[in-house]
Amino acid sequence: ESSSDEDYWRCLLLISNKFILSPLSFNLLFAIAAILIFLGISALISGSEVAFFSLSKKDLNDLSKKHSYQEQAVVRLLNNPRYLLSTILIFNNLVNIAIIIISSYVILSLFDFSNSPILGFIVEVLVISFLILLLSEIAPKIYATKNNIQLAKLMAIPLYIARSEEHTSELQSH
Fold it and tell me: What is the rounded CA–CA span in Å between residue 80 and residue 88?
């Protein structure tokens, strides 16, 4: 039994030595930190989609009676739901593209897949897809269904500003 354990660890060591290319450098640590930040931003944006569009008429009525900037921004954003949805989707896609590009850099910097480029591609796709789906799509949407008012209020001002920028650039292009 101990020889099979030794064989397992020897095989694992050979595999890791074959594919690990470089130790963590400052650039890689910075890139990993950027991925984590972008995953957080993507989670907030993704969760806000569920948060905004799951608000009931009663929730909106209650928010419209309040006078804070956040509550008013929620109501204003939902006055034009198509623009709100397009803003959420555009910005979430931009952030996810940043995650994909930086994650690809990190994976290719850490591992040498020159002998098996197909394996490298599969690892990249699986790791990046898992990160984005679990951490910035599924989990935030589950959270948003239970905390829709709080998340909508949290994201109202950033989305209102983003929406304003989006419409300003649209008007300038016509």
Answer: 13
